[in-house]
């Protein structure tokens, strides 16, 4: 019987593990290899020399990081998948919020990771390029990376809404409220498209550091309570025909 | 069937989880205030001069409007506890009307500043002014949506869920409280 219990949830557990692994990769790529997220994150007020030094001075690591990103980016979909499965179990909201979450997750990986990596990959691809062009790629990379908020903001909104409407308490209510913090931090990062220095610039205290801090707290809670949701899912919810096959 | 679902006399108002949001939002706004005070410390003169362009009168009226609104919402919660749902609903409408008044007056204030050429990129003071007030404005709009939901709850055929009413009221008081700090820091502090 214990064998059966483990097996019916195996697919979900594999996908669950992909989330901490994906964020390990994410931290390695953006924090250590490419240095795009610092620390400290390079700002919009760097000189032309500073930008060239940041981009080309770190070319080899940058390339390794972007190759890793290209390989591991799809991992994010596994995490989205298992969250959607748990959202579909909720009673109260219909499936529509889970589908919105899925669509946002699919769209968000492009501006949130790949676009930025692509631009830095191009800048180090041909190091003898005009520094002005490198500067343009640098700015596009950063404003896109920090400033493309819409997909994430809506994803947080539908997730929080689903938790509030859910009568089965698949996730605790406070996690819904915590998700709203993330929504607020996404909204307050909107002025990165305007400011070149200060707390609201893309490397600013409020636009970047506050957002990252709150995201880290939230993702740790999400990962922990997602595991609990999978663990607490009753076996009756699984298709008996399917569990029968597993017994054979 | 019009008696409200009762809660123990002494309890944390609303769903305890709302306090997770309240405290988190306070931390986020706390960072705003810290950044504002930090920048202000670096260029005190500029901040004082720019502050002269704000309309203290409009800010003070908005503070009064929001405080009155909070009072109406608190009275509405009390009325709902006493199962006087007609009064509760009416008081909530008054609270919402005050909130809408705040939105209108704030929009007028922004409009007059923008027409005077004072924009978000004018200087550091106006950057903070527009950022803080607009994030707060977003909170007010969300609060108005919540008040509409509460009003529907009061007017429904089923007895209202007291916890839901208290949760919404707690959020509205937080929005009021944040405005008082913004008003003190941005409009008044010399």
Number of beta strands of chain A: 0
Report the sheet-strand fraction of chain A. Answer: under 5%
Strand content of chain B: under 5%
Report the uncertain regions of chain B.
none
State the assembly state of the protein chains.
Answer: heterodimer
State the helical fraction of chain B: over 70%
Mean pLDDT level of chain A: 87
Helical content band of chain A: over 70%
Number of strands of chain B: 0
CATH topology of chain B: Four Helix Bundle (Hemerythrin (Met), subunit A)
Q: Give the SSE string of chain A.
A: HHHHHHHHHHH
Class from secondary-structure proportions of chain B: mainly alpha
Biggest chain pair interface: A-B, 23 and 21 residues
Element pattern of chain B in H and E: HHHHHH
Cα distance spanning the termini of chain B: 55 Å
What does the secondary structure layout of this molecule look like, with pairings?
The complex is a heterodimer of chains A (248) and B (190).
Chain A: H1 2-8, H2 10-33, H3 48-56, H4 59-72, H5 75-88, H6 96-125, H7 131-147, H8 150-165, H9 173-188, H10 205-232, H11 240-247
Chain B: H1 18-42, H2 44-51, H3 56-81, H4 85-115, H5 124-155, H6 162-188
Description of the molecule:
The complex is a heterodimer of chains A (248) and B (190). Chain A is mainly alpha-helical and 248 residues long. Chain A has one domain. Helix content of chain A is 74%, strand content 0%. Chain A has 11 helices and no strands. Chain A has helices at residues 2-8, 10-33, 48-56, 59-72, 75-88, 96-125, 131-147, 150-165, 173-188, 205-232, 240-247. In chain A, helix 4 packs antiparallel against helix 6 (96-125), helix 8 runs antiparallel to helix 9 (173-188) and helix 9 packs antiparallel against helix 10. Chain A is elongated, with a radius of gyration of 20 Å. The two termini of chain A are 12 Å apart. Chain B contains 6 helices and no strands. With 190 residues, chain B is mostly helical. Chain B has one domain (23-188): Four Helix Bundle (Hemerythrin (Met), subunit A) (Up-down Bundle). In chain B, 78% of the residues lie in helices and 0% in strands. Chains A and B meet through helix 9 and helix 10 of A and helix 1 and helix 5 of B.
């Amino acid at each position: 019987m214990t064998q059966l219990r483990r097996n019916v949830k195996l697919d979900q557990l594999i996908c669950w593990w992909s989330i901490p692994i994906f964020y390990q990769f994410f931290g390695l790529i953006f924090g250590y290899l490419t240095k795009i997220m610092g620390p400290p994150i390079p700002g919009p007020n760097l000189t032309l020399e500073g930008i060239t030094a940041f981009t080309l001075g770190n070319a080899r690591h940058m390339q390794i990081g972007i190759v890793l990103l290209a390989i591991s980016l799809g991992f994010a979909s596994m995490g989205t998948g298992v969250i959607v499965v748990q959202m579909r179990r909720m009673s109260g909201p219909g499936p529509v919020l889970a589908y919105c979450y899925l669509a946002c997750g699919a769209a968000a990986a492009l501006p949130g990771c790949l676009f930025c990596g692509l631009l830095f990959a191009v800048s180090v691809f041909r190091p003898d390029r005009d520094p002005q062009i490198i500067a343009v790629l640098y700015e596009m990379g950063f404003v896109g990376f920090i400033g493309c908020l819409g997909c994430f903001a809506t994803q947080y909104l539908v997730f929080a809404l689903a938790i509030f409407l859910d009568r089965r308490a698949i996730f605790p209510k406070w996690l819904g409220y915590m998700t709203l913090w993330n929504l607020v931090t996404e909204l307050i990062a909107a002025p990165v498209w305007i400011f070149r220095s200060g707390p609201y610039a893309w490397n600013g205290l409020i636009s970047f550091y506050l957002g990252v801090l709150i995201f880290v707290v939230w993702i740790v809670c999400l990962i922990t309570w997602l595991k609990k949701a999978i663990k607490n899912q009753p076996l009756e919810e699984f298709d008996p025909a399917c569990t029968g096959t597993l017994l054979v | 069937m019009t008696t409200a679902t009762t809660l123990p006399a002494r309890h944390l108002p609303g769903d305890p989880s709302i306090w997770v949001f309240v405290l988190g939002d306070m931390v986020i706004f706390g960072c705003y205030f810290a950044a504002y005070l930090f920048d202000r410390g670096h260029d005190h003169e500029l901040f004082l001069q720019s502050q002269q362009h704000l309309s203290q009168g409009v800010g003070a009226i908005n503070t009064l409007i929001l405080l009155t609104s909070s009072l109406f919402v608190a009275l509405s919660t009390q009325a709902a506890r006493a199962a006087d749902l007609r009064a509760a609903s009416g008081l909530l409408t008054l609270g919402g009307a005050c909130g809408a008044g705040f939105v209108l007056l704030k929009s007028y204030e922004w409009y007059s500043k923008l027409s005077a050429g004072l924009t978000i990129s004018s200087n550091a003071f106006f950057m903070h002014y527009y950022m803080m007030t607009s994030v707060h404005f977003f909170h007010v709009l969300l609060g108005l949506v919540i008040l509409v939901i509460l009003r529907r709850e009061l007017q429904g055929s089923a007895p209202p869920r007291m916890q839901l009413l208290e949760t919404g009221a707690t959020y509205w008081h937080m929005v009021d409280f944040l405005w008082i700090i913004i008003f003190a820091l941005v409009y008044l502090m010399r």
